[in-house]
Amino acid sequence: MASLSHSPVTFTGNLASGTSASDLLRSSSNGVSGVPLKSLGRARLGARRYFTVTAKVRKVKKHEYPWPDDADPNVKGGALSHLSHFKPLKVKPKLVTLDFEKPLMNLQKKIIDVQKMANETGLDFSDQIISLENKYQQALKDLYTHLTPIQRVNIARHPNRPTFLDHVSNITEKFVELHGDRSGYDDPAIVTGLGSINGRSYMFMGHQKGRHTKENIQRNFGMPTPHGYRKALRMMYYADHHGFPIITFIDTPGAFADLKSEELGQGEAIAHNLRTMFGLKVPIVSIVIGEGGSGGALAIGCANKLLMLENAVFYVASPEACAAILWKTAKASPKAAEKLRITAGELCKLQIADGIIPEPLGGAHADPHWASQQIKTAIVDTMDELTKMDTQELLKHRMLKFRKIGGFQEGIPIDTKKKVNMKKKEEPIQKPTSELELAGEVEKLKQKILRAKESSTEPPELGLNEMIEKLKREVDHEFSEAAKAMGLKDRLAMLQEEFAKARNSKDQLMHPALKDKIEKLKDEFNQGLPLAPNYASLKYKLDMLKEIFKAKNMPEKNNITGTLKQEINKRFKEVMDRSNVKEKIEALKAKIENSGVSRVGDLDQGLKEKIVQVKEEIELEFADVLESLGLHMEPPSFSDVKVKIEEFNEEINKGIEDVINSSDLKNKIELLKLEVAKAGKTPDLESKSKIQTLEQQIKQSLAEAINFSGLKERHEKLKADISEAMESSGGLDGSLVKRNLKEDNSKYDGSRVEINLQANRSVA
Question: Are residues 272 and 196 part of one domain?
Fold first, then answer.
């Protein structure tokens, strides 16, 4: 409201018609402010009139300037940190439990309940609490050391995971945020600023997600628009000009892909950043602290070194998007995450990432300060390495890092067929061949083999192999149909899955329960197989497969046998043509002629012994020749004994196998295997005691079984037969027979040793 400074009178009323707004605002020389002279004169002469001038001020919201009224000059990060809108949360973030962490929460709930009970009752439950806490820590360790790729994706997206500014406030002594792309925009999804670590200045930039819903909306969930990338580009030029090393933090699902962003040049902004980063003359280190999605992450990720937090992920497409493209459903995201190889460990193997920064158990959100200190250590070590390089070496290092990504092979022929669809075509389902057709094909193949045999040429190897593979497929199909008819197909599929899991697990030993399941299903299948509707067809095809195998192996065996006969005849002729052998034979013939006896039975005892001696000497020489060919000559009288020895060995082996396969002993052997595997190389006293007890029980069972089956009596009888053969074969001094008997006895003893070793191996 305007007022007169020298008069207590306030004039009201209408202004003169000639008074303008400029006259009203113009001051006069007599000190009256805001009233024209013409109106003042008229007011003095005439009646007093009052008028008022009012001005309404529009109420607006007070500007929320981040600088507080009581700014602390010694605040951490420097006084300029007051300019940042990012402040520590006053309220503790809400606890979020991921699906795979629910078993841990159950343990934690038990601990809280026991503590509450102890407080209410005043009883001492410290032992139970310590036991539960130990279980919790062990379960936590087991869970977070065997995380699947999709579980790591969920941890990287955890709502409470520390953001870029959280880490920056923990690792820098001073930090000031820099805003704007100098084109009228300031994207909050990308934050840039200058900060110092250990007295060295760096340019920081990174994706910023929100810590709660309101911040996420403000930060656009960490998805930058082109303005954010142009702001980052401006700061890159600034850092390059002043020589500040650049540290980028990557944590984004991807660039914001709305219509407005595309109109403003999202692709061009990302491409410009990629091109510029390869030419910057300062060291660049990128750290993936959450998820790094596609080009939105790469736009600030073309660095000399790419480091990743242990549970961070870096991908070209999210697992959900990949699953929707390849398998037409987002539910296949666990499979897609595994195939994409997006975790820190996999990317280090592929040489895309250069290092892994450890996280605390439970993820970075479990102990943000500890995780930040690990990042700080990694930054300092990496920058110490990069700052030693000169400019050209630095640029070359950055270029080679990306040039070496991926691999290729030379010399592989290129498929000239055009790939119309990315999805692999499914193989057509082959219908089973009828028995008549199979019989015709097998008969034709047999005729070819016979003709090849008559003409002394090699059988058609390619046709044989093709027929064998075809028959194998037919037999497999018949087995599947038989299992389906007996109602065992589902059980077989479940057992196959369990067996595959057991093979993929670190424990190489199969669990006894799984083995029993397999044996039971096998017995049930074998018992019900003759009753299957397709049993006749299955048996017919199996017989044909055996015939083909026999036909394939027969020419090879015949060829080997014929060649061996020729070689033996050749060597026998060489032995008989030797001069010393000829002399012995001629001398023996002369003695027989001089005796004048026409029949061998009429010869005197001395000449008979001489004939036997010459015969043995020739046999010995011929035996040496055969041994050089890998053969063994036996006298006829000893062959029956050897057959008995082999039968006895087979009976021993069969007896031991029957004992081992008995349910009681079999379970003991499996338990012994598990105990040995658990004990490892350095078993404790308890494990040693268990192992020794089981070994004694198994050995005792084997000994009882062998004694019960009468194998000892058979062994004594066999020894008597061997003695008789030695006495009746080739005279008492037959050296060849003795040597053969000695060798076969050693083989027999060896077989017993082999049996014992086999039993011990089965036990251990």
Answer: yes
